[in-house]
Specification:
The complex is a heterotrimer. Chain A is an all-alpha fold. Chain A has 14 helices and no strands. In chain A, helix 8 runs antiparallel to helix 11 and helix 9 packs antiparallel against helix 10. Classes of the chains: A mainly alpha, B mainly alpha, C alpha/beta. Chain B: It comes from Jiella pelagia.
Chain lengths: ~300, ~260, ~280
């Protein structure tokens, strides 16, 4: 090896690993862990979805596509899917509006220690058990529950406002459970918005809604999108909230899938439904991100 | 405008804390069926003091959540750096692969883990729960830190490097401090994901080695009593004191402040 | 239990098997045939349970019936006791009914109402129609006893499909004001029996143990001190105190009118599950 080459090359290699190696080193720990603990087990479940019956005991293994025909064989599932989708959209929409506004209020109307404390207070309810939280809601919104007691303090003859066992009750419980996600992701995104940009706009005579929709919302878009993913995706499969808060109306894809695993003991059908749901969710986000990209380029 | 914003924040907090207050209150109500009218008692706290099982499960939950938060945040932050700061082939596929653990209901993931861990000899127990919790928390960490990276200006880092600092030096001196709010946020998330995780823990726990959510989940069958409200309240108040104390004594402008 | 029995030969000497699974176990040659003459306490067993067809395979008995229970109706005290499951769809219980979120039980109720065999209803559409007619009344579907107790004590419903054993506990532990009612169609019954695995090394000791388990003296102690399901031994039930709730609810005449859950072939079980899922979706829509 010519001496010049090593003299020129050495400092460079000491300073920089090859790019692909650095990328791999950054990714490997997470993805190895994910593969071992989630992706491989889920791949096994995916294989189960092509079976005729749950592979336990000494039944023969029969491969079939019948589980994926469920929506065709049991058309009422389309109605269930639509109900889940609309619950997901409502929840995500309400969380987006309230969460963004709360994050904006945190960033613009508070500062320093008060702001940190408030942010933590927003996230803390998240650390209590979801089941206990949902159960507490039932005591608030049932007929004669805390909500009614409270209202009747001021207006003794008030009619009952209880709305337990309705779709709005399910959405309420889900919004309560997932709102902190949106507040946090929007907060992170809004933190890095440069004050100077807003002042510049205002000095040029921009009204508040122009500032909001032309500057703040587009700049915080990554936060809104991440928040929406973190909320919409699990809400579609949620089963605890619909079951406890929904009563008779609490039938969603989540509860149907849960039933296949706990009651009907039909893992193949349950996983086929879950993977179909995953495909739909991915399709929704693919379309959505396509639209976003196109609108960004125009 | 600022007043309206603050009022709005207050309303959001009232909404978030309403069921929490109910939860705490019902821990002091005598009826085991949570029936009204309210009848004050500390009976459930006394019961809880004698309930070693529930207390031990509470400690297990906390340790598991702390470990999960540390591991998942470290791994997830590295992955987020690669996914949002570097370009390479297969990047979008790797991003999509983060979604299944979030999208597939935990019940299915839990069943799948149980079958797979049994089959590979990993078995059940706290170690299996840790593996599962970290795996579930990683996607949340990657997405939250990724959001921070997306809104962070890459040019600062480049400027530092063009001024002669090494990539690693630039990362520790420029990117990391700017990214700190996102990383802390992600860690809080990972902690919450683990602390509230019941389905997977339920499948992967062994008798005598459970976590609080598992105890609560199995209590639905036996009937859950206000003891569960009592321990939830204690846990919440304790974490509130620790975190707010931490925020108070941390360096000025700790989390959430641009440095 | 069957999986454990298959994979652990020789480990168990006595096993508890639901009557709906007994024939499957016997068919796989997992169990020993029994002769009731060896069981002195068997004389008190209710004949309908003792000689139940599900405990027999090829004319031989493979299980000693031990405890049983029913799914029927529970109604709040002070209201008229319904005579038929048809009350679940009656207009006077509008938005006042809780159903059990269990496919086999609810298909059973639908089959009773459409005059069919609950274990093998030929006309599933008729079952669906009967269940769907309950929609305006259904307030919630319960899946655990705890959920039932809390909702009932909050006054959310007055009429419900409920378990007999749970009805005893709800009254005894929480003083909930309810009556357990078996309508004229009869109850949906279950029966647990004790069997001896074919691989047991201690057949004689196993037989002695089973005999002890159906002994009225043992049962009375178990039922009064700890709380137990209803015994299949009529003599044991008679020895409970006259005002015992367990005895009051599990009347011997109900054994005559109840239909035991039968072993279900896989395709029928799937059909039941799908139908119940469809009915639930109809309630939600």
């Amino acid at each position: 090896m010519p001496p010049e080459a090593s003299a020129a090359g050495l400092p460079a290699t000491r300073r920089r690993m090859p790019s692909w190696l650095a990328t791999a080193a950054l990714l490997l720990p997470s993805y190895a862990w994910l593969t071992l603990a989630v992706l491989l087990p889920l791949a096994a479940m995916f294989a189960f979805s092509f079976l005729h019956a749950t592979p336990l005991g000494n039944k023969p293994v029969v491969w079939t596509l019948e589980q994926y025909r469920a929506f065709y064989d049991q058309p009422y599932l389309l109605g269930v899917a639509w109900a889940s989708l609309s619950i997901g959209l409502w929840t995500t929409g309400i969380c987006a509006v309230v969460g963004f506004a709360a994050a904006l209020a945190l960033v613009r109307a508070t500062a320093g220690r008060a702001r940190e404390t408030l942010l933590i207070l927003v996230l803390l309810p998240f650390w209590t058990n979801g089941l206990v939280r949902v159960f507490s809601w039932t005591m608030v919104i049932r007929e004669g529950g805390f909500l009614d007691v409270f209202v009747r303090w001021f207006w003794p003859s008030a009619p009952s406002l209880g709305f337990l066992y309705t779709t709005p009750a399910i959405v309420l419980g889900l919004v309560h459970g997932y709102l902190p996600y949106m507040v946090l992701t929007c907060y992170i995104a809004l933190l890095s918005v440069d004050e100077a940009v807003i002042e510049a706009a205002q000095s040029l005579g921009a009204r508040w809604w122009t500032v909001l929709f032309k500057i703040l919302v587009p700049l915080a878009a990554p936060g809104l999108v991440t928040g929406a993913i973190l909320i919409f995706v699990p809400v579609i499969g949620a089963f605890m909230e619909p079951r406890i808060l929904g009563g008779r109306v609490g039938v969603t894809m989540g509860t149907v899938i849960e039933d296949q695993f706990t009651q009907a003991f039909n893992w193949p059908l349950g996983s086929a439904l879950a993977f179909t749901m995953l495909a739909v969710v991915l399709a929704v986000f693919a379309t959505f991100s396509g639209v976003l990209r196109r609108s960004a380029t125009t | 405008m600022i007043k309206i914003a603050r009022l709005f924040l207050a309303l959001v907090l009232v909404f978030l804390y309403l069921p929490i207050i109910v939860m705490a209150a019902m821990g002091f109500n005598a009826s085991p069926l949570y029936a009204l009218p309210f009848d004050f008692t500390t009976h459930w706290y006394q019961e809880l003091a004698g309930n070693g099982r529930l207390i031990e499960a509470g400690w297990n939950s906390i340790w598991l959540a702390v470990l999960t938060a540390v591991i998942a945040t470290a791994l997830g932050t590295l992955a987020a750096l690669a996914l949002w700061r570097r370009t390479f082939r297969g990047r979008s596929i790797l991003r999509i692969l983060l979604l299944p653990p979030i999208a597939i209901p935990w019940l299915i993931t839990g069943t799948a883990m149980l079958v797979f861990f049994f089959w590979t000899g990993i078995g059940r127990g706290l170690h299996a729960m840790l593996i599962g919790h970290v795996a579930l928390a990683i996607p949340y960490v990657v997405l939250v830190v990724g959001t921070g990276l997306q809104t962070l200006r890459a040019d600062l880092e480049e400027a530092a490097m063009s001024l002669g600092s090494t990539p690693i030096h630039a990362f520790f001196r420029v990117t990391l401090p700017l990214l700190l709010p996102s990383i802390v946020g992600a860690a809080l998330f990972a902690f919450a994901v683990s602390l509230d995780q019941f389905v997977i823990s339920y499948f992967l726990s062994v008798p005598g080695m459970t976590t609080l959510p598992v105890e609560i989940y199995s209590a639905i069958r036996k009937g859950f009593t206000p003891e569960i409200n009592a321990i939830s309240t204690i846990l919440l108040v304790a974490s509130m004191i620790i975190i707010l104390g931490f925020a108070r004594f941390a360096r000025p402008g700790g989390i959430g402040e641009r440095s | 239990m069957l999986t454990k029995l298959r994979t652990n030969p020789g480990v168990y000497d006595v096993v508890l098997i639901n009557s709906a699974r007994s024939q499957q176990a016997a068919g796989e040659d997992l169990l020993t045939p029994l002769d009731l003459a060896n069981y002195s306490n068997a004389s008190g067993l209710a004949p309908a349970l003792r000689d139940n067809a599900y405990l027999k395979t090829d004319g031989k008995l493979y299980g000693v019936s031990w405890v049983w229970g029913m799914n029927a109706l529970a109604i709040r005290d002070g209201m008229d006791k319904p005579e038929s499951y048809a009350a679940l769809a009656a207009p006077e219980y509008k938005n006042n009914v809780a159903l059990f979120d269990d496919a086999v039980t609810m298909i059973g109720v639908g089959a009773f109402l459409s005059g069919q065999d609950m274990n093998d209803p030929k006309d599933l559409d008729a079952v669906a129609e009967k269940l769907k007619a309950m929609k305006p009344n259904v307030k919630l579907l319960w899946s655990s006893e705890d959920q039932w107790n809390k909702a009932f004590s909050a006054g959310e419903f007055d009429l419900s499909v409920y378990w007999s054993g749970a009805a005893v506990r709800s009254q005894r532990k929480f003083q909930l004001p309810l009556h357990f009612v078996v309508p004229k169609e009869g109850a949906i019954g279950w029966l647990d029996s004790l069997s001896i695995p074919a691989t047991s090394q201690n057949q004689e000791a196993a037989a002695k143990f089973i005999n002890y388990m159906i002994d009225p003296k043992f049962y009375v102690e178990w039922a009064t001190k700890i709380g137990a399901p209803a015994s299949a031994n009529e003599k044991a039930m008679e020895e409970l105190p006259a005002d015992d709730l367990n005895r009051d609810i599990h009347k011997p005449e109900y054994i005559e009118t109840m239909t035991l859950m039968a072993p279900l072939p896989d395709d029928r079980r799937t059909a039941f599950n799908n139908l119940w899922q469809e009915v639930k979706a109809f309630y939600a829509a």
